[in-house]
């Protein structure tokens, strides 16, 4: 009985570790591709509106948040995501980073509940030309994996 409990605990810890490792890799790879990544490809790499709405329906979130999420149109969603994308690129323009040349250093994260949804807010530390930078990634757990919601610099 003790061995079964220990093995089950190790399996749970391993699956959680893999989930965080997977979002770390996906987020960093997305950053590395920013030199050539078109907005529509960026949008397809992030949490979709359909999945966001589905999660809002099945999550235990307050009705006022459902009332904000569920009526969102594809055009509004695309507008907000494009604004985030452009703000991120604008904020990083002064650093003149060639994204494909960045080097991963560390990933730190905090799990939290936001609007009743499980989230992971991460910080990716990377270097470019021996300078250390950080980018924030905000994700939502869709039940299977963390989905990228937005980036900030």
Structure description:
The protein contains five helices and four strands. The protein is an alpha+beta fold and 153 residues long. It has one domain (2-152). The protein starts with a helix and ends with a strand. Mean pLDDT is 88; it is low at 1-16.
SSE map:
Blueprint: H1 2-32, H2 39-45, H3 49-58, H4 63-69, H5 74-93, E1 103-114, E2 117-128, E3 131-141, E4 146-152
Antiparallel strand pairs: 1-2, 2-3, 3-4
Number of separate helices:
5
> What ranges have pLDDT less than 50 throughout 5 or more consecutive residues?
1-16
Succession of helices and strands: HHHHHEEEE
Shape: globular
Question: Could you tell me the mean pLDDT?
Answer: 88
Strand order of the largest sheet: 1-2-3-4
Measured on Cα atoms, how large is the radius of gyration? 17 Å
Strand % is 25-35%
* DSSP strand tally: 4
| Share of helical residues | 40-55%
- The separation of the N and C termini measures 48 Å
What count of domains describes the coordinates? 1
Judged by helices, strands and strand pairing, the structural class is: alpha+beta
Q: How many strands, what sense, and barrel or not for the largest sheet?
A: 4 strands, antiparallel
């Amino acid at each position: 009985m003790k061995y079964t409990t220990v093995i089950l605990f190790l399996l749970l810890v391993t699956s959680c570790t893999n989930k965080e490792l997977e979002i770390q890799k996906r987020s960093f790879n997305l950053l590395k591709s920013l030199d050539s990544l078109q907005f529509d490809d960026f949008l397809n790499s992030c949490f979709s509106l359909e999945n966001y709405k589905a999660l809002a329906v099945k999550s235990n979130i307050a009705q006022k948040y459902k009332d904000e999420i569920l009526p969102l149109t594809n055009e509004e969603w695309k507008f907000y995501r494009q604004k985030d994308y452009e703000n991120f690129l604008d904020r990083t323009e002064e650093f003149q980073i060639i994204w494909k040349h960045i080097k991963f250093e560390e990933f730190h994260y905090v799990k939290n509940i936001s609007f009743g949804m499980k989230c992971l807010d991460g910080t990716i530390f990377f270097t470019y030309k021996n300078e250390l930078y950080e980018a924030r990634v905000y994700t939502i757990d869709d039940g299977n994996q963390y989905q990228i919601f937005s980036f900030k610099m």
